[in-house]
Amino acid sequence: MNARLVLALSVSAAALWPAGCGQEDRPDPADAAKRPRVLADRTWPNVVLIVIDSLRPDHLGCYGYQRPTSPRIDRLAGEGALFECVVSSSGWTLPAHATLFTGLCDSVHGCTDTDRRLHEKHYTLAERLRDTGYATAGFFSGPYLHPVFGLNQGFETYVDCTSYAELSDRTAAESGTVEGEAIWDAMHRDVTNPTVVARVRQWLHDNRRRPFFLFVHMWDVHFDFLPPPPYDTLFDPGYAGPITGAGFLVDDRINKDMPRRDLDHLIALYDGEIAWTDAHLGQLLDELAALGLLENSLLVVTADHGTAFFEHQLKGHRNSLYDEVIRIPLLVRWPPRIPPGLRIRQQVRMIDLLPTIVDLIGAAWDYRTVMGHSLAALFSGGQLPRDDPAISELSSMGIELQAFRRLERKTIWHVALDKGVVFDLLADPGELAPLTDRNAPAVVAARQDVKWSRGFLELFRARHPPAPAISDLPKQLLEKLRSLGYVGEEAATQPEASPP
Questions:
Q1: Sheet harboring 390-396: ordered strands across?
Q2: CATH assignment, 43-389
Q3: By C-alpha distance, which of 395, 329, 364 is closest to 84?
Q4: What would the pLDDT profile of 462-491 be if each residue is shown by its tens digit?
Q5: Sign of CA dihedral 293, 298, 304, 306
Q6: Tell me, what's the pLDDT at 14?
Q7: What phi, psi does 255 have (nearest 5°)?
């Protein structure tokens, strides 16, 4: 893209949100301690949130894909609601999950890169459900959900299902984050689905008597694309070329000019990973059904982000905010409230998931401090209170981007350049031809989208000052590391970081 269109903006945050909204809804610790740990005398649904890392909706049968990559997900779509246009808050795992758990955009929750963590002041979905009496458990299978980043807040059980968990803990003790060449190599080679399923099954058997919130993160769709047999040859059995799916980011043969036949095989391996993961998702659903838990479970299946195969000369993610990276699937099943086979065309956002779950289960919290709104009305033919743009952000590895998206248009803003490009998504769904006419209707409307969105972010950033950079490890993690001998008494008693 050579065209760059500068949008002149002035932001007035005061007009964006009613003055009476936004009271802190985290309970006072003294009040929370007095809350009964047993739910009120009514039938509360279980909540099961499954996030499949790097899963693109356009590679699923229920979203129109021709390959049979996702029979269990497709079946799930027929049993509940499918959202056709869902926008993530970011282009990679860490900030997207922080948004999922808080209902706040990336620059508001502040967990935007690997030198930052989610601050304890944020009231997460797991904390909300725990404080109501739910058992809370999380099972993760990738490095960026490690407790060092604070995403374990509110989980009574939080299980690392990676093969390199000990290495992650040791690295966290040494550096305050989870990055390094050894972890990089291990995470891209790891095969985690069987471990996730086994550990979740055991937890369900031990905790099925009490309403629960279960978060399951499934990593294997993420590159490298190394699906086990028979999924490695399922969609391209005749390939005899050099591409194996290993070294996706570092193999020089995987580039924008690679032969189309090799690229097709790479995509077939990605599809094989989806089918492999779909089969394990099916095992989890079968377990819930066998235990008599499925019908009274609010089930949400989504992704944190997608991944690129050179649609814009880029591969992977954490490098752009194009739709192949920020569009995600969303399926919601709960027979008491959600009719089967429902398809919702209206654009929704990752920030809407927390208030939707809270609203659907009928928990009595004031959640006006979250930036999204409940989608519950859409399940009965209603409308959302407002049609706001979706805000996506990327602040990592020296890249600073924002995207403001509606169904019909999208602006990608280059923060350092203070310039943006606008796409007419109705005429140009592939985002290949940025508009150059300042007076084009989509450009004129995009100015208002950017103005509103930036003001909305400014308003909430003032209410939620960003979390500090990682300088001290979270207390629970310090205690675990000390018990394993990775840190001593002096490190374990350091004061915790406080908001700036």
A1: 390-396, 399-405, 409-414, 419-424
A2: 3.40.720.10
A3: 329
A4: 988 765 556 455 666 556 555 544 444 433
A5: positive
A6: 30
A7: -145, 170
